[in-house]
Structure prediction request, 423 residues.
Amino acid sequence: MARFLLSAMPFTGHVTPLLAVAGALVERGHAVRFHTGAAFRARVEASGAVHVPWREAPDFDENDQGATFPRVQGRKGLRQVFINLEDLMIGTAPAQVADLQAEWDREPWDALAADEISVGAALFAARSGCAWATIAVLPLAVPSGQGPPSGMGIMPGRNPLTKTRDAALRALAPLMMRPLTGPLVRARTAVGLAPDPLTFAQTVFSPQRVLASGSPLLDYGRTDRPPHLDFVGVLTQPPSGPAPLPDWWGDLDGRTVVHLTQGTQNIDPSDLLRPALEALAHRNLLVVVSTGVRGRDELPFPVPGNARVAGFLPYDQLLPRTDVVITNGGWGGTLRALSHDIPLVIAGGDLDKPEVAARVAWSGAGVDLRTGTPTAAHVARGFERVSHDPSMRGAAARVGAQLRSEGGAQAAARLLEAFAREA
Prediction:
């Protein structure tokens, strides 16, 4: 038996995949602790892990981040990305280190595994020297010498001009990330580390072990990934049993089903839900909408007769019955859809969403609308392409087969088990 501590920033999209890994480790007989926000305590305990709450670190509500971090209020686009990185990820890191140090002093662990925005976990590993693995729950952002820098939402060039563009952007990437150098140095200094001017990626990706959700087909087929990196497909927990279903579930029978979601972060329904519902209102299909907030089973505007709405839906029961997914491009939901061979229409606006959309479009498994706030006509055109181009469904099936072959949470648990044994 090994002792693991898993750490994830308190966002549903980050906690959920690491909970799958935690559950798989528990099944294999290991002792697992999980450091994250209080809102996830019940889910952590249900996985069999022990919850380690944010105590010194300023816990927050992912659906009301502005209450704790006022600068993120109402921000979108690139400015939002940098404020999120500086205030939420880097700014909370010294207090995360204090939490982890207190838990380490109580009982050390054999290996630490954290998502790639848990700066506190990375700094604690650097300070303590403990074995540390990164579990990448976003599109893989390990620097590469191929294609454009990750995160820009740009597909790799295919001709000399665009390949030159990619090389120029790679050269500029450190300069573009320079606004984070000062905050990272201050965080390092605050926890007693030397003020080394590392980039964000150099800080958060372990040089010892990286497990990446996704697969090579969604990584532009890059061939220069480091040898300590493995793809592990989709990190999901097995269903514990049939989930409660809404009263209208029987309406799916015999229908073409389109699942519509904006995930759990940017959840203003005017961004995507409203125009998509308008685009599909008069079609002979059923639109199943997730609001992204548990218990919020209505939208603040009338919905067409062919739409059904719920806060959260059991994907293990919904996706096998879904023909097309329209989404703002959350990585976890996108991977789950593709693992069921479902093509997508993606309106990726902020954070990692444009990158997700570009990668799916590159694979041929969907349409990138290239905006997070499309018009109804824009959504309709994307839906027509996905619905009538058989090559997209074929590409989704190829990506789905590769994702399933990577092994998921069980494979991640086996790799972490070996990592801890060799540490």
About this structure: The domain at 3-234+406-422 is CATH 3.40.50.2000 (Rossmann fold). The chain has two domains: 3-234+406-422, 249-404.
